[in-house]
Write a structure and sequence with these properties.
alpha+beta
């Protein structure tokens, strides 16, 4: 959500059109990932699905169990960690410098 008067983008509540506006504002192109051939996954262990407990999905018990499940099955580089950021709603809020103006995506399209 872009708030022009405050110069703030709240990424945790962004819509697709807000994403398009952000990309246009920073003059960035969205480039998707692509693989010319499917990688060989035969040597990778099966990733079991997570089973939610009976509490609410956002309950402390489910969040803790889900984080344990991810830590068990995902490998990250040593300098990275998984974290439960549910309680920090401002984590993805970006404050823009004064003078940065929003541009419409249509202005950036090239046919």
């Amino acid at each position: 959500v872009w708030t022009a008067e405050r110069g703030t983008i709240v990424l945790s509540r962004a819509t697709n059109s807000a994403r398009d506006d952000i990309l246009a504002m920073f003059e960035m192109a969205e480039v998707g990932a692509g693989w010319p051939a499917r990688p060989d996954l035969s040597d990778i262990d099966e990733f079991s699905s997570f089973e939610w407990q009976h509490e609410a999905e956002a309950s402390a018990q489910n969040r803790s169990a889900y984080m344990d499940h991810l830590k068990k099955h995902l490998s990250l580089l040593p300098k990275y960690v998984l974290a439960d950021a549910q309680s920090d709603r401002s984590m993805l809020t970006v404050k823009l410098r004064k003078g940065i103006k929003r541009k419409k995506l249509a202005e950036r399209l090239v046919l």
